[in-house]
Amino acid sequence: MNLRQHLPLLRWSVLRTGIGIRNFNRTGQIGDGREAAAADYVEANARRGDIDSVLATIDEYAYAKSFLVNIGDEKGALLDAAVRRADPGLALELGTYCGYGALRIARAAPSARVYSVELASANAAVARRIWAHAGVADRVTCVVGTVGDGGRTLDALHDEHGFDSGTVDFLFIDHDKNAYLSDLLSIVERGWLRSGAVVVADNVGFPGSPKYRAFMHDHEGDGWTTVEHRTHMEYQKLVPDLVLESQYRR
User: Where do the coiled-coil regions begin and end (predicted)?
Assistant: First the structure.
C-alpha cells in the first residue's frame, strides 16, 4: 500500500474537499474543477472502449491527482458483487457524480440498461464524456433531476424511459445522504422495485445516513433483508464506513 493510501487525509485535495463541501452540497462539485479534470485525465490516459481501463484510470486519478467522492475501488468491489447477485435487466442509480458507479454497474451487468439520476448538469456532462470513452454511452443514461422534485423526475423516468411496476431490479443510492430514505420510499411507492430487487446504499456509516439505516433495521424481515458491509470511506483506509445491501421482499 502506498503513502497516499496510508495518509490520505494529509492530501491537499482531501482537505480541499472539506473546505468545498458547502459548494458541493449546492452544486454537486467541489469547486476546484477536479471533476472535469477527471474526464480530461480519462480521455488522455485510459484505453478507449475499455471499461476496466477507464475505471482503473479514475481510481488512479483519485489516488494520485484529486480525491473524488465516488464509491471507489474498495467499496466498488462490494457494489460489483451485489450487481452480479441481482443480475439486473434495469438498474437505477441516484447520484451520478462523475459516472463511476454507473460504469461499475454497466461492467458487472453487461446486458442491463442503466439509468442514473443527477442533480447537477455539470456532473452529467462529465459522466457522459467518461461513459462515451468507455464505450457504454448506448446503454447508460443520465437523467438530470432529483427524486425529491415533486415527481417531475420520476414522471420522466416513467414516461420517457419505461420505468413501471416491477421493472427495477437494482437500485444504487449514493447522493444526498439526507434524502436516502425519502427517495427510496418514493420509488417503493411507485411500485417500481420488483420482488427480490437489490438496493445498495453507500456512505451509510460516513458521512452517514442514520434514518436510512434505522429504517432497514426496523424492517428487517418485514419487506427487507439487509446485510451491512463494514468497509472504509473511499480511497483511504483510516475512516470506517458502511455499505448496506438490502433485498426487497414484497
Answer: none
Q: Does some domain include residue 196?
A: yes
Q: What are the residues whose beta carbons fall under 8 Å from the beta carbon of 8, sequence distance 6 or more?
A: 14, 67, 235, 236, 237, 238
Query: Minimal CA–CA distance to 69: which of 35, 113, 114?
Result: 35
Q: What is the pTM of this model?
A: 0.93
> Does any domain span residue 207?
yes
Task: Flag whether 117 is in a domain.
Answer: yes
d(CA 179, CA 173): 9
The answer to whether residue 89 is domain-embedded is: yes
Residue 26 to residue 57: CA distance in whole angstroms: 27
Structure confidence by residue, pLDDT tens digits, 106-149: 999 999 999 999 999 999 999 999 999 999 999 999 999 999 99
Mean pLDDT of the chain: 93
Active site residues: 174, 177, 202-203, 234
